[in-house]
Each structure stands twice: as structure tokens, then as C-alpha cells.
What we know:
There is one protein chain. By secondary structure, the chain is an alpha+beta fold. The chain has one domain. The chain is 16% helix and 22% strand. The chain has 1 helix and 4 strands, in the order ββββα. The longest helix is centred in the C-terminal third of the chain and has 13 residues, at 67-79. The chain is flat, with a radius of gyration of 16 Å. The model has no long low-confidence stretch (mean pLDDT 77).
Amino acid sequence: MPIYVFACSVCGVRSEHLLPLGATEDRRCEECGGTARHRFARVGVRYDSWGFGATDNLVSDTRGKDFGALRETAERISEE
């Protein structure tokens, strides 16, 4: 069973729930009782065959990369 992340639209509290696959319907917020919606969370992936050797090697040249901006973009996309 996967762990799903939910965020409340009223108070913004995020919570994790171990639920059956596909159980992403809106839930009640445990803090304020508002509506908590499913949010996509990040997952670590490692390919050992013809794919990537390790997730750390996904960005080979780190010079000049603004990882803060990349993270903010990823967070914004996950909120949509």
C-alpha cells in the first residue's frame, strides 16, 4: 500500500496516510475539519539496468544550476 500526501485547503496542514492503491479521494483535515486534497509527493527512483546508475547522477553538471528554483518549480507543479 502506498503512502499518500494530503494537504488541507483551509489551514494548509499536510498529512501522510497509508492507503490502498488509488484511494486519493478528498478527506477531512484532522486539524481543522476542512477538505484535504491529494498532493503528489516526490519519490526516489534508481534504475539498475540500462537506465540511470543512481538518482544522484541525474544532473551531471551542477555548475550554474539554481536548485532552489528547480525545487520551487517542482513544488508549484505538485500543488496544481
